[in-house]
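Box 3.1. Reading complex inputs
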Amino acid sequence: MPLINLVFKNIFRHKLRTVLTVIGIAIAILAFGTIRTVIAMWYSGVEASSPNRLITRNAISLIFPLPIAYRNAITAVPGVSEVSYAQWFGGIYIDEKHSQFPQIAVDAATWFNVTPENRISEAEKAVFLRERNAAVVGVQIARRFGWKIGDSVRMRSMIFPGDWDFVVRGIYTGAQKSTDETLFFFQWQYLDEQLRKLEPWRAGNVGWYVVKIADPDRAASISGAIDHRFKNSLAETRTETEQAFVQGFISMSDTILIALRIISIVIIGVILAVLSNTMAMTARERLSEYAVFKTLGFEARHLVLLIAGESVLIALIGGAVGILMIGPTVDGFGAVMTSTVGAMFPIVGVSAVTRTVSLLMALGVGLAAAIFPAWRAATLRIVQGLRRVG
Amino acid sequence: MPAPLIEINEVYKSYRREHLEIPVLEKISLTVAAGEFLALMGPSGSGKTTLLNLIAGIDRPDRGTIRIGGIEIGSLGESDLARWRSRHIGFIFQLYNLIPVLTAVENVELPLLLTPLSKKQRREHAELALNVVGLSDRMRHYPRQLSGGQEQRVGIARAIVTDPTLLVADEPTGDLDKTSARDVMDLLSRLNKDFSKTIVMVTHDPRAAEQARTVRHLDKGTLI
Ligand SMILES: Nc1ncnc2c1ncn2[C@@H]1O[C@H](COP(=O)(O)OP(=O)(O)OP(=O)(O)O)[C@@H](O)[C@H]1O
Ligand SMILES: [Mg+2]
């Protein structure tokens, strides 16, 4: 029965108090890890974006479309090497309500030329081009839903009417680690054809143009030229590099990011307070016991071990529970983000660094919360401690 | 005549409360021979516990010397004093002071964690000590599953398990009914007679004091 066993027995002395403290720490570490992951997710969007791609969108807002007729005019701007376009679909996969993924209607002929980071075989590309309702999906969602080439997928949309049937004809993989492998591409032409039948006044529009340029150094002048071309037209455009476009989201939410950072610091403070309180209560109740230990010949270091061990154990249990919950929470958050903001924020998953940092936070809080009670026990005079009962 | 085990020489102890210095022990001198069973009696507040704590090395005198087994314990540093206590002192508390989350045998084993004994040896020693106090059938019981008398016997087993030079007991029967008190006193006098343990015991109970070989009285901080 070494002293460590006593640490384990001690944490069950006030079961409710321990359980509540563990829950508190778990929630806090969950929040801490989730915030870190979300921030990482945000920035990975920037990393994944290409410097030689421009995004042209409606100058008013991303939610307003641009006419398909702009395509030729953009192609004609000097310095532009290829133009593709896309439309946000806002689909809901009927079979799986809880984990959604972004769907984008794209120009089948050009899309994979302007996004080489989405790797797909030439054969699959050819089928995608040929079949109206073909879809190319990221390897991660294919794996998640067990989709194989030839599988049918039925979806509804939050934006467009009716049921939409697709057939998986291609599975792409990311060229880089930061490439989003959870996207679902299908032919913009399919979307447009259906709209002509169902809601013709909405047809002939795209969400944004993706403009490939040969020389990234000329991005600013080409962007200016494109926007100048549509000045005073019905739908004015705003063109910027993909990087700036994604960063635009970030700087728009700079305050949010700062707030998140502050919150994650506050969270650590809060669990430190919670655990410190628990440990202080514990130590106060056990002062006479510590005096008995000292009478028996135990020394300050033994008591410090006993108290710090208990504090760290509680913190690590709470931390471990919290860390296990980060993954599912981030997935949920990612699903919400992708279905509201779009495909710009790939789900990066919980990094090993985040797990480690969260665990170290828990460890640090455990140690810090033990300082005061350990000091009290270490400096306790035996006669004083014994008097508290006798 | 053997050399005395305990030699207390002109010991003073006072406590400070606010700015007042309250003398508790004044010029106490006392020798106790090895194998003695000494009872300290006296009115409440006369300084019995204070004197016992000084003998047990859990408190220090303001002046004077205390030698136990030839060692002047006042000269030991905190750490050495702790080690000295674990080797030489068995302390029996009025309120037993067992660790509630440990079973009887684990409580008794506790002081042995500071010795180089193996796990198996520790367990054997602890079981032997519980045997001596007649609680072999209560090893796996937790303190709350024991009567007061049984708890105190576990406390005594914990005090004797390291085979200390000296047993000190502060009102060991103070919280017990008559029958349990008698059992505990029988046990202490058996430890004194059969195992030649030197015992210093503080008590209010004249019946308990009867079991001792010598009774000394404290009054207002002086031995009479
Ligand atoms: N830590 C302390 N701080 C201040 N005063 C103390 C302290 N310890 C003891 N005293 C005082 O010293 C005096 C003697 O106390 P002590 O506990 O030795 O008496 P006692 O003879 O054991 O009494 P009782 O029979 O009630 O246990 C008392 O007046 C007590 O108030
Ligand atoms: Mg007393």
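In summary: The CA atoms of residues 110 and 158 of chain B lie 8 Å apart.
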